[in-house]
Amino acid sequence: MKFFIGKKKAQSYKGLLVKADEGLHEKIAEEILHRVPKGGIILDLGAGEGALSERLFDLGYHVVAADKDLRNFRCRNAKFTEINFDSLSELENFVSSHEKTFDAVLGIEVIEHVKNQWQYVKQLVRMTKPGGLILITTPNTTSWLSRFIFLISGRFHQFSDGDLSYGHISPITPWELTMIMSDSGVDNITVSPAGTLPPIYITGLNKLLIINFFALLVRPFQKGIIDGWCVVVSGRKKT
């Protein structure tokens, strides 16, 4: 059984800040390599500083990145478009001008920030070529840790009042995300855990230690994706 002891540290790739949990970008890159031919065109929508864009470029892909602040984007090997995501017309113009353009469209740790998750997924699908890959990641609301936090507080893990400061407004379960993707024209959907949240996760002598103890007791009776800080949900656009 895997376990983690200690506090999480900020991750980087070639000096670019990874705004995602440890191991997530590596898992995404591995899936892209298995499912998208090298030389394909990938959209990294919500790219941050560009750590994932840079990693995918290094693997042999053409990368188009988009986010709200050009000044924050530091990857020189991706074509960048600045989008004000709060402007529905600006976002729609970008989607319309890129319909059926990309071999893969990535929404990495974005869907929990948007108000209309159905519309968001449909926009990703519109920009994907028939047969292309749509890959979305989001905090795992069904993890053993999230379940116990919900039991105590009525709120999912990473969706407390404090998480509003960085825009976590829309928790979504893997089941809901799978349903939305299927309804949006995606098939061959897979769901898998990612990130650092093994069965034993200890950061010190605090309430998390107590939660770990009770979580282990009920673990044999839990169903679904109970490990993983995040979930990766991906599928192909129907042809």
Supply the key terms:
single chain; 239 residues; alpha/beta; Rossmann fold; 7-stranded mixed sheet; two-stranded parallel sheet; 7 helices; globular
Can you put this structure into words, describing what you see?
There is one protein chain. The chain has a single domain (10-140, 172-197, 225-237), classed as Vaccinia Virus protein VP39 (Rossmann fold, 3-Layer(aba) Sandwich), CATH 3.40.50. The model has no long low-confidence stretch (mean pLDDT 93). Strands 6-5-4-7-8-11-9 form a 7-stranded mixed β-sheet, with helices on both faces. It is built from 7 helices and 11 strands. The protein is of the alpha/beta class and 239 residues long. β2 and β3 (16-18) form a beta hairpin. The chain has helices spanning 24-35, 51-58, 88-96, 117-126, 144-153, 174-183, 207-218, and strands spanning 3-5, 11-13, 16-18, 41-45, 62-67, 79-82, 102-108, 128-139, 186-194, 200-202, 230-237.
Architecture blueprint of SSEs:
Elements: E1 3-5, E2 11-13, E3 16-18, H1 24-35, E4 41-45, H2 51-58, E5 62-67, E6 79-82, H3 88-96, E7 102-108, H4 117-126, E8 128-139, H5 144-153, H6 174-183, E9 186-194, E10 200-202, H7 207-218, E11 230-237
Parallel strand pairs: 1-10, 4-5, 4-7, 5-6, 7-8
Antiparallel strand pairs: 2-3, 8-11, 9-11
Low-pLDDT residue spans: none
- Spatial order of the strands forming the largest sheet: 6-5-4-7-8-11-9
Spell out the helices and strands N to C: EEEHEHEEHEHEHHEEHE
Question: What is the CATH superfamily?
Answer: Vaccinia Virus protein VP39
Number of helices: 7
CATH topology: Rossmann fold
CATH class: Alpha Beta
Cα shape: globular
